[in-house]
Amino acid sequence: MVDGILMLLVLLNLFSLGSTRISASIRVVAYQGAAIGLVPLFLPGKITGGILAAIVLVTLLVKAVILPWFLRYAQKRVNVRREEKPFVGASTSILFGVAALGTAFFISSRLPIPFAVVSPFIVPVALSVSLTGFFIIISRAEALSQVVGYLILENGIYLFGIALLLEQPLLVELGMLLDVFVGIFVMGITVFHISREFEHTDTSRLSGLADWLPEVRRNE
Amino acid sequence: MAILLFLAPFAAGLAAFVIKNDRLRRRLLFTVACAHAAFALYLCLFPPGGEDYRWLWFGFDALSRYFTAVFSLLFLCASFYAVIYLKGEKSRPCEKEEDLLFHNAPEAAFTGCLLVFLACMSLLALSRHFGLIWIAMEATTLVSAPLIYFHRQRSSLEATWKYLLICSVGIALALFGNLFLAVSASGQGPGMEISIDSLLGPGVRLDPLWLKAGFIFVLVGYGTKMGLAPMHTWLPDAHSEAPSVASALLSGALLNCAFLAILRFYQLCLANGLGSFCRELFLIFGILSMAVAAVFIIGQSDYKRLLAYSSVEHMGILCFAVAVGTAYGSMLQAANHSFLKGALFICAGNILAGFRSKRIADVRGIAHIMPWAGVLWFTGILAICGMPPFGAFLSEWIILKAAFSAGNLLLPVVYLFLLGVIFIGMTGTGIRMTFGVPSIPEGGKSFLSLFPALILLLLSLFLGIYMPAALEGAVSGAAALLGGEG
User: What is the mean pLDDT of chain B?
Assistant: First the structure.
């Protein structure tokens, strides 16, 4: 079952790399959050009952409902539909996604987990999800796409943490979730400001600050 | 008791968001800063009974005592300046600067964020659990973003966005580092907490491979926040666009806190025999940061960016110091950098208010029209470049000595060369700005807004010429946790 979820995550990865429509990316992130939120249910674990239910519910609520809803709201408010000029096109991005998966498998073969895990694919999939998020942040120009990329990066880390190390103190785990939650909100609000101030949210055009070009900066 | 260092400013920060009365809110900011500094200094110099304080995942060892005292003193001076600055900004509703009209963010939000920022830094220093350290670190990013975007103008917004995104991604990498640490600790049986106390406990051996991987991620992740090259790109933008109070705090307090988070990890690596592996990495990032800073300091056209690159340089020096084995020098240098950079940013704020330009070329003859600002600015520049008798000279000297005894002659030569280049670049700019024919008819501000800069300079002077036993104890206590002199 865990393997099924992991397979799904890999597919969602490729899908998020291939879509330049922002609403589609947000939907993918929501599915991804839901899939990761369900992982703890299938772990043979020390944690059961109410605490397990609480973890699953909170994760689902934050990652699959509230954050995607907020991103969707932000998207409507700043009124961007699609990535107009990504630095890397969709098909090249998908190729990168495949390469990232390979890299992730290679890295995790070099870093053996010193204890028994439920599926040998957890580490490579978590790494490839994070790499995908990273790639989306650097290859997309729209501010909102970058926020989505950050969320994907966080999802990968969360998968790694929750699948391997659920026994860490719950409070700390929830604190991390809260930080990501607030972080996305602060980023979203900054995007509102950018959209109001510049009348676009294309970060490749946010280039007023530089070391060597004071004259250009004055003429902006 | 020490948990109050976190709770008091946190509560005051929340209160500041809702207090309507400006005077009351400013008074609250300054009172909390005074109390925080007094308490932190007391705990640092006279640790009660020599006992480390523990409660849940909180604790207060020599390292946290020392770092807290340093940033708390800086915060006190910065908050004094902030009160004057905010009063001034209130009477200046909307003005021209860099051909743009801008308003300011609400003062209540700014004050509240300042206080919560102090609380988060205290939390970071107090945390014993690596997850909690991570939470505090990310929280400092989130509350300091509104500080950078105080002036509602395009350039600050751009800086805020870069800061948020780059630092959040960096800190996300550090979270990977924490998880790797947890994996490396998993051999100790289930339920092993990734807190410093349990991992430094007797008989705990961590898996070296995962610990190494974790350290790399943490160094790159928190190193982003600390401003180590090549992850420093957000730093000059944020430091130049933030109001000077916030720049002083970002540079003098926040960068050190990020360093503290890396040092926590380094403590674990030391205990597991990975000291030399970590020191090699520190050396690479340290030298690279100093070199990048040197390149950008020469020929810099914006004086707040100049200070920002000087921060990159000093963060490099801190890493270099640990790499050549003098944690003591590193600790001393951290305090000196905080005080001097705080003083310089406060001066820069005054100069900016007088000359209305951040461009070095527009600022000439500060000494003639704003004598106090001129004297303090020039002294500050000399001091931060390592002129005696200020403290930075002493700490840089200690580091040089350690570099010579580290065995490789190339290290001290490169170190001295880079310091020399930076010295020439910074003092050249300082001379051009301070002396000569003034570029504006008259300067504005009173002495009062420069007073905190004077205090900070005196603090660094004090560190350079006289070291009381209690302070000596605090510094070497902190260094001892990092392997001391050896």
Answer: 89
